C-alpha cells in the first residue's frame, strides 16, 4: 500500500515537472525565469507575455495535474485500494513537481493552476465558490496573489466540510490521511505565496496589469 502511494506521488511529480510556462516562453524566444518573479507559472507568464500565453500556461498546468490523476486511476483502479487517496497522492505529486522541478534547481511555480486541476478532477463541487471568490478578489483588489490564496483556503475548507458530512464518500479508515493530504495542498499554496503575503501587508505587492521586469 505504501509502495502504491509512493508510485502515485512520483508519477504525479513527473507530470508536474512539465514546464508549461517555460515552454510557452521559449516558443516566443523568452526565458520566463529571467523576468519578473522568475516563476514559471501563469501569473508571471501573464505579466511577461500577456493573457493568451497565461491562459495556455494555466490550462497546461491544470491539464497535467488532471492527466496524472486520471493515469493513477487507470493504473490502480483494480488494486482494491481507496482510489480517492491514491488519486490525491498523484495530484499532490503534480503540485510538488510544478513547484519544485528537479531540473530547474527546484524552482518552479506556485502551484495554483495545479491545485485547480486537483479541484476539477476530484472536487468539482468546490470549484464554483473557489472560482467566484478568485475572480471577485482580483476584480476588487487587483491582486492575483490574494485571489490565489483565498481560493486555496476556500478549497480546503469546502473539502473538509464535504468530507465531514460524508459527501465525498471517503472511508472512515482513510479520513485522517485524506484530511492531511488536503491540508498539505492548502499549506503548500500559502507557503509558495509567503513573499506575496509580506508584500500585501506592506502594500508593495504588484497589481494586475503591471509588467514584469527583466532580472
DSSP strand (E) fraction?
A: under 5%
What number is the mean pLDDT? 92
- Major sheet size, sense and barrel closure: none
Number of helices: 10
Q: Based on helices, strands and strand pairing, what is the structural class?
A: mainly alpha
Q: What is the 3D shape? A: globular
Q: How would you characterize the overall build of this protein?
A:
Helices cover 69% and strands 0% of the residues. It contains ten helices and no strands. The chain has helices at 2-16, 20-27, 42-49, 51-76, 83-99, 112-122, 127-141, 144-164, 175-192, 194-202. It has 215 residues and is mostly helical.
Features:
single chain, 215 residues, mainly alpha, 10 helices, globular
Give a brief description.
This protein has 10 helices and no strands. It is mainly α and 215 residues long.
Summarize the SSE layout with pairings.
Blueprint: H1 2-16, H2 20-27, H3 42-49, H4 51-76, H5 83-99, H6 112-122, H7 127-141, H8 144-164, H9 175-192, H10 194-202
Helix pairs in contact: 1-4, 1-5, 2-4, 3-4, 4-5, 4-6, 5-6, 5-9, 7-8, 8-9
Amino acid at each position: 500500500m505504501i509502495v502504491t502511494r509512493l508510485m502515485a506521488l512520483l508519477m504525479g511529480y513527473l507530470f508536474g515537472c512539465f514546464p508549461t510556462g517555460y515552454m510557452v516562453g521559449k516558443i516566443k524566444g523568452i526565458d520566463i525565469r529571467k523576468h519578473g518573479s522568475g516563476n514559471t507559472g501563469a501569473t508571471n507568464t501573464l505579466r511577461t507575455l500577456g493573457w493568451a500565453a497565461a491562459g495556455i500556461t494555466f490550462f497546461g498546468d491544470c491539464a497535467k495535474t488532471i492527466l496524472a490523476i486520471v493515469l493513477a486511476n487507470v493504473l490502480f483502479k483494480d488494486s482494491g485500494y481507496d482510489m480517492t487517496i491514491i488519486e490525491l497522492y498523484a495530484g499532490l505529486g503534480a503540485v510538488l513537481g510544478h513547484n519544485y522541478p528537479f531540473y530547474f534547481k527546484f524552482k518552479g511555480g506556485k502551484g495554483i493552476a495545479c491545485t485547480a486541476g486537483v479541484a476539477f478532477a476530484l472536487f468539482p463541487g468546490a470549484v464554483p465558490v473557489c472560482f467566484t471568490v478568485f475572480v471577485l478578489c482580483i476584480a476588487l483588489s487587483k491582486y492575483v496573489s490574494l485571489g490565489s490564496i483565498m481560493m486555496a483556503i476556500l478549497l480546503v475548507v469546502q473539502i473538509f466540510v464535504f468530507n465531514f458530512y460524508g459527501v465525498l464518500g471517503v472511508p472512515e479508515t482513510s479520513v485522517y490521511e485524506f484530511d492531511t493530504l488536503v491540508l498539505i495542498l492548502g499549506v503548500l499554496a500559502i507557503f509558495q505565496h509567503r513573499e506575496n503575503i509580506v508584500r500585501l501587508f506592506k502594500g508593495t505587492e504588484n497589481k494586475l496589469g503591471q509588467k514584469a521586469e527583466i532580472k
